């Protein structure tokens, strides 16, 4: 079973600064992987969009996700990365806002992701309505995980396209989360930390290189 989060009240959605959102988009783009997701989206037309000026506060494209879509994004993101001893939940560090920025960008990969993610979110809503008579975000935690467990079931040909969407969505959520200071801390990353002294490489490393 997959860990779930309570939805007794809508989780707060952190709004990123425009410059911070651009920074996360550029970092996450380097982590993006490709999947065969033709069932949930077509490839976007060729060509590239315009590059934002990182020295300005504005991103030159409008947001495209609806409030209802962002609620589903928030629920799924917090199921993927819930609050625990390692760090805050995905929604607490602005991941729903990041996903909205990502799929709103006018570049080929982001346009392709928009088709896949928008159709995937709609599928989760439709499946929840079919099973429980309510949108996915309004379902109980147990109902939400039951839909997701069915999608992730090994060999589930019926949910192949939904599984492909979820893999891509999971990677985008993780890419955004682990480009934040909270994500770095969860990974144990301690780079860019000033040190008063450098002890040098450990003896084991020197012996491995025949230097000790």
Task: Give the arrangement of secondary structure elements.
Layout: H1 18-31, H2 67-80, H3 95-104, H4 108-132, H5 141-152, H6 160-177, H7 181-187, H8 203-208
Helix pairs in contact: 1-3, 1-6, 2-3, 3-6, 4-6
Brief descriptors of the model:
single chain, 212 residues, mainly alpha, 8 helices, 0% strand, disordered N terminus
Describe this protein's structure.
The structure is a single chain. The chain is built from eight helices and no strands. The chain starts with 17 loop residues before the first helix and ends with a helix. It has helices at 18-31, 67-80, 95-104, 108-132, 141-152, 160-177, 181-187, 203-208. It is 50% helix and 0% strand. It has 212 residues and is an all-alpha fold.
TL;DR?
By secondary structure, this protein is mainly alpha-helical. The protein has eight helices and no strands.
- The best one-word shape is globular
N-to-C series of helices and strands: HHHHHHHH
Number of strands: 0
Give unreliable regions as ranges: 1-8, 33-38, 42-46
Please give the share of residues in helix. Answer: 40-55%
Number of helices: 8
Q: Radius of gyration, rounded? A: 20 Å
Structural class: mainly alpha
* Total number of domains: 1
What portion of residues belong to β-strands?
Answer: under 5%
Q: How far do the termini sit from each other?
A: 49 Å
Sheet of most strands: none
Kindly report the average pLDDT value. 81
